[in-house]
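Our collaborator T.R. sent over the components below with a one-line note: 'Predict the complex.' Nothing else. No constraints on interfaces, no templates requested, no preferences about which chain binds where. So this is a plain run: every listed entity goes in together, and whatever single assembly comes back becomes the starting point for the next discussion.
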Amino acid sequence: DAGVIQSPRHEVTEMGQEVTLRCKPISGHNSLFWYRQTMMRGLELLIYFNNNVPIDDSGMPEDRFSAKMPNASFSTLKIQPSEPRDSAVYFCASSFSTGQGETQYFGPGTRLLVL
Amino acid sequence: DAKTTQPPSMDCAEGRAANLPCNHSTISGNEYVYWYRQIHSQGPQYIIHGLKNNETNEMASLIITEDRKSSTLILPHATLRDTAVYYCIVREYNNNDMRFGAGTRLTVKP
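Returned assembly:
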């Protein structure tokens, strides 16, 4: 099993540019999570999907952030326009959720630097 | 609000047991205790979870006090590769919102 796959692993961009982060969950998992990690705020849940449907996006910082999951094997997190304060490590995680609890498996993360 | 309190850092000698404490005095009856760890520059890794009974797997043991207000994660024979930040998380079993606190930075020394 390849685990959760994220791309790119590193991204450097300039303020105002659009950034798209990608995630491929573990095959067979039906829940997908996007997290952001910074030194100041630690690890925060941004949004999660269950069966490709967004369930809770209360952690999304503002309208500049959007996430989609067009199918069970792919999700994107988009920032438009990007700002320096968006610099962070973005993690994607997936799990097989039965409503009875599950373990989340994290990807390696995307390190984003906005100049 | 992470609902848990952990010491910011701990050291452990290689080959010895590492005992990482966690205080969760406001835990409710339907909340589980989960432990994850994050090795430098990697994504968090699941270790173990439990409700009220002690649990053991190939990675660690979890000891939960009878009143469930605190727990201890035990790595029986710590190695240098166990150096990481360890997160104790309290969450309802069917609640996907995991609140990571600051965790404990464990350093295993040779």
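Summary for T.R.: Chain B touches chain A through 18 residues (CB under 8 Å).
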